[in-house]
Amino acid sequence: MLIAHATIVFTRYILLEWERRNNQDSRSYGEIFYLFCDEIQDIDYQTAIRQPGRFTAPPA
């Protein structure tokens, strides 16, 4: 009986926290995330290969 009670309490807590995050947490703004991702320009393969080389020190 105690396990059933604890399971119900934890389930209610999870649902309440999920509802709070959907209403208050800025990370749950799904549509805004996709709008910002659409604005970021994709880079081509050549640029992706060259960029890590910029951050390495030149050989001594």
Structural account:
With 60 residues, this protein is mainly α. 72% of the residues lie in helices and 0% in strands. The chain contains three helices and no strands. The longest helix is centred in the N-terminal third of the chain and has 23 residues, at 2-24.
In brief:
With 60 residues, the chain is mainly α. It has helices at residues 2-24, 30-39, 45-54.
Mean pLDDT: 77
Number of strands: 0
Distance between the terminal alpha carbons, to the nearest Å? 71 Å
Number of helices: 3
Topology:
Elements: H1 2-24, H2 30-39, H3 45-54
Question: Which short descriptors sum up this protein?
Answer:
elongated, 60 residues, mainly alpha
